[in-house]
Specification:
Length: 95
């Protein structure tokens, strides 16, 4: 799983049938202190995430489990919006 910040979106006028109704978002991976740790990637949004939200992303075959059709062609899927991160004694509240 990858922790990331939504940093943009893509518009697709034509996409695979089982992806219709789902947004394609640009996600920048971040560490537990919300600092960027790599280049952005594209993920299919299955939870209604928006710009600047911190999200949980799964990759590979697990990304398809959020869809009714098991052969939905996706490699990265957003499966959660993060509200709070606890790391040791530190707590980061996401607003």
């Amino acid at each position: 799983m990858i922790l990331g910040r939504v940093c943009g979106n893509l518009v697709s006028s034509c996409k695979w049938e089982t992806l219709k109704g789902h947004k394609l978002l640009m996600v920048e991976p971040v560490d537990e202190e919300l600092k960027p740790i790599g280049p952005p990637f594209i993920a299919v949004d299955t939870v209604g995430a928006g710009e600047d939200e911190i999200v949980l992303v799964v990759e590979s075959r697990e990304a398809t489990h959020a869809f009714d059709e098991p052969n939905t062609p996706t490699d990265m899927g957003i499966i959660g919006i993060i509200d709070e991160i606890k790391c040791g004694a530190a707590v980061i509240k996401i607003m």
